[in-house]
Amino acid sequence: MAASSENKNTASVRKMIEANKQKKSVSQITEKLVPVFLVLIASISILTTAGIIYTLLAESIAFFQRVPIIEFFTGTVLKPLSQNPEFGVLPLLTGTIISSVIAMLVAGPVGLMSAVYLSEFASDKVRRTVKPLLEILAGIPTIVYGFFAFTFVTPLIRMVFPSVEATNILSPGIVMGVMIIPMIASLSEDAMSSVPNSMREGALALGATRLETTFRVVIPAALSGIISSFVLGISRAIGETMIVTIASGSSKNFTFDITQSMQTMTAYIVEVSGGEAPAGSTIYYSLYAVALTLFVFTLIMNLLARYISRKFREEY
After folding, report:
1. CATH of domain 78-312
2. What is the pLDDT of residues 83-94, one digit of tens each?
3. Which residues does 229 contact at the CB level (< 8 Å), separation at least 6?
4. Where are its TM segments located (predicted)?
5. What are 52-80's pLDDT values in tens digits?
6. β-strands 78-79, 86-87 pairing
7. Where exactly are the structural domains of the chain?
8. Conformation bin of residue 141: beta by default, left when phi > 0, alpha when psi is -120 to 50
9. 86 - beta bridge partners?
């Protein structure tokens, strides 16, 4: 009996050892597969970006085989649907740059002053209340902003300046600025809040006022974050679509008059992709050439933001 019991215990121990070995084997396989799975997940955005670049380049090359690249970037006339079509991109570039400049003239000062107030002058209770309310603006759909620009801002401007056209680049530029204010205010406020209090206390101890401390100590110390927020705001304005499509119209004018209708690159892409361009036609390929130009624009702005952020970064 004793020998039989000993055999049973030995068999049980062997089963336990084998079960533990199987568990370890499954665990080791899982440990090896998890990094591979995470790499695949992480590479999705990279592969998507590579696919976008390949598509834009391939279709743009087809366009530039029909339209000289110099004519595209220096031409001031854009008549894609004319019997004698012309594909100068300067009217679109002008509309995009002017609308972005107007937006930043609105968003820059208001966003920065909002950040100064929230970071340096508002109490914690006011900051916790006002900042979320300000950021609600960022959640409003851009098409709502577009109709707001067309049905409210433009009539308001025309009451003061009757010569302003019903569709113009001024009102969408102003409304884009309102839309960008939360981005600049929030990012700038974060940058200023990260400045150590010891720097503020040192300036105040030397006799500086709170205003002097803000503009001579805090803002210079947070300059990299503030400039980055401005550059990201410009990128947001360049890429905006619905506001300018609704409120600025589709006139492909090469002009610097902000009271007239202009078209931006994004609005042109929306117009062409709306069904007016047969596949394989020159106007169809022009969509990709404009999109590639827009892609390069925003890429340069993002690289500039990263460069500025690193160059002016202060470490405490």
Report:
1. 1.10.3720.10
2. 888 888 999 999
3. 111, 183, 184, 186, 187, 188, 191
4. 33-57, 89-112, 133-157, 169-187, 217-238, 283-305
5. 999 899 889 988 998 898 988 988 888 88
6. antiparallel
7. 25-65, 78-312
8. beta
9. 79
